[in-house]
Amino acid sequence: MISLIIKSFTILFPSTCLLCRQDILNVEEKPVCSFCLSSVELDPETKRGDPSLVDGYFSAAAFKGPIRELLHAYKYQGKDYLTSLLVDLWIRNWDPWFAEVDGIVPVPMARWKEMNRGYNQAVLLAREMGRRMRKPVYSQWLIRKWRSPSQTALTREERLQNARTSFSTRRSKRRGPPKTLLLVDDVVTTGATLTACAHQLKRMGVQTVLAATIARDA
User: Could you give the angle at the alpha carbon of 122 between the alpha carbons of 191 and 35, nearest 5°?
Assistant: First the structure.
């Protein structure tokens, strides 16, 4: 009975696909229709032992096309309900090496920016990833300084310089830090933010820092 009511409601008031803007009549296809979902181009990339970035890096796709549209809506249009869908795409070609971690750390956002947006997308992604991987999420260990400028409008050199001084750490000293952590964010551009965060985590005593983003814009 309930399923019949839901189907009737969907026919009368259909949702709209976030990408093609067409009506969605199948309740199982929310928030992106099956046609658009099949057009998402995944191009996974793994880097290992790159000291200029972190100990290892994984991304699911290039920052273009449908992936770019989804992430833009996720970050700037309040579409936090896209978390599960984005993680589905993220782990479709997941490198098993990145599952061998002791915990997950999201890249922090400046407090004023998080209050304005209502959420930090990296924290939402980390929590969903942690739930699926059954790993603890340490969302308070890295702190982005209050007055650190956004990386978005900076040049490559400015990003590198800004990232070096934008982060600090906070962790309980009751026990030693995990041996291996996974650092997560939605998009990587120059790698400056991931490098700076990894540096802070290693200063805490973490031996290995792996990093993963949904997309790479390089």
Answer: 95
